[in-house]
Amino acid sequence: MRCPFCGHEDTQVKDSRPHEDGAAIRRRRICAACSQRFTTIERVQLRDLYVVKADDRRVPFERDKLARSVRIALRKRPVDEERIERIVNGLVRQLEASGETDIPSRDIGKLVMGTLREVDIVAYIRFASVHWDFRETKDFAAILQSIPGTADGDVPVVPGDAAAAIAAESGPGGVKRR
Boundaries of each ATP-cone domain copy? Predict the structure, then answer.
């Protein structure tokens, strides 16, 4: 591995330990040229995943982008960093276990929303407002009305006008229709 300080190719592993519930390996390394120490984290990647965007573009899946989105949704909420990492690891494992290499972005969003809904309802609403592109207060009102009626944690996929789509899936008082 290349040293991040001097760019030298020869580094030695001094210590390896399991990291994040065994889902990754944390390695302490030392550069043979400049003697600087640094840490790397290695994760198992079952397959290369690609995200299919709404405009049918296909881009490589980025775990860091998913983690950043989850962290933003959970910012200033009572969820510690360790739990956020477990959430992200679980989401990535679910995506890898799906058997698909091309995953529509709306499916990733639905998976994240389902998880956030169970963890923190405010984070769920924050994420949904970006994912569904809320533009008006009625969009927030519609999702707030849908929350008490959804007992099983199933999150509707809302294309286009969020309020209309949520209303279409919910009956009177926000109770989700089956």
Answer: 49-139
Structure tokens that stand for 134 in this block: 């809320």
Residues 9-59 have pLDDT tens digits of 999 999 999 876 676 788 999 999 999 999 998 877 667 899 999 999 999
C-alpha distances (whole Å) from 11 to each of 7, 15, 118, 146, 155 are: 10, 12, 43, 54, 47
Of 52, 44, 27, 57, which Cα lies nearest the Cα of 109?
Answer: 52
Nearest residue to 117 via CA among 142, 83, 154: 154
Q: How far apart are CA 28 and CA 44, in angstroms?
A: 18
- pTM of the complete model beyond 0.85: no
Q: Is the dihedral of CA 76, 142, 133, 70 positive or negative?
A: positive
Bridge partners (DSSP) of residue 5 are none
Whole-angstrom Cα distance, residue 19 to residue 7?
26
pLDDT digits (tens, 9 = 90+) for 67-79: 999 999 999 999 9
Rounded Cα distance between 165 and 142, Å, is: 9
- Residue 148: Cβ-neighbour burial (10 angstroms; 0-12, 13-18, 19+): exposed
Q: Domain residues of the chain, as ranges?
A: 11-43, 45-128, 132-178
